[in-house]
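Reading is simple: each integer encodes one residue's backbone shape. An example follows:

___
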Amino acid sequence: MFEGFARQWTPVLPLRRIGSRPQRVAVAGEQLVVWRVAAHRVGVLLDRCPHRSVSLALGSRTTDGDIQCAFHGWRFDASGSCTRIPFNPDLTAGHGRDRRGATALPHRELGGLLWVFTGFDPDTEPQLPETLLDESLIRFTHTETWDAHWTRAMENMLDYPHLPYVHRNTIGRFVRAKQTPDSQLHQEIRDTGFGYDLVPWLDENDPGATLKWYAPNSMVLDTLPAPRMMRIQVYCIPAETDRVRMLLITTRNFARNPAASLAFNRFNTLVLHQDRAVVESSDPVVVPRGAVETSVPTDRATLRFRSWFNRELRDSEVADPRAQRPAER
């Protein structure tokens, strides 16, 4: 399970998009079902009823917060335990309901997001910027799905040299204004506890924007000097095979009127859309091993991510706990 993205914390959806009605969401090739158990509590199960392997997302939430399968009415709580099996009153909790349970996923509700662990025994917690925990900031959230592998989207978000070309009329215009035919791009990469900081500068100009990589799948771009703060964050969430759910979050501490928010939100969404066609055209679909592609010194940041992915995640997986269920007698 979770091949190529095992044992990682990743956001899945904004919490505001999760209601009492069960919904299906894919993470690293696995289908999950999420629903709101109570006002401040979300349930996350593998989207497969243990009885006949149908989608639990086709079911409904009961009055006590359980999810009820649409096929035979089996009920499961947020821990995955089976709480009712119709027409089988002898199967009490002490006599088989628990071993007939669904599979729950470790999850957290942090920074307005639902986080899921792609495994079953986390030994870490989600790493997220402090801005996602600051409710005084103005926030915009946008999601869309691309036909690309998450690694291609992630390395694109860490790639500074493409700005004056892909984003020539948006965020790249500031680089273009300083660029000459003989310009040289410098990049300093500093290892951090969460990934790395990237500080780029052109020729003898002072560094501008600062970029951060939060392993495994997030980029943070700070575009303004203090005391103003404009932060763009993108999560590249692996969904179905070779599809990536792009989660864009922007936060700022100024221009609080609705008209300004509308303008900023449109601009930042446009910047994201400018990357899509390029990323979706990647071949091979997954970032390659070795020297399949030609690289140059200004690719250091993306090569650092590739090296980490190929070493830590490409061959990762976790065992499917459903394969270990005892046979029915």
Observations:
- Residues 178 and 284 are 33 Å apart (CA to CA).
- The mean pLDDT is 93.
- Helices lie at 150-157, 163-166, 173-176, 258-280, 300-312.
- The first helix runs from residue 150 to 157.
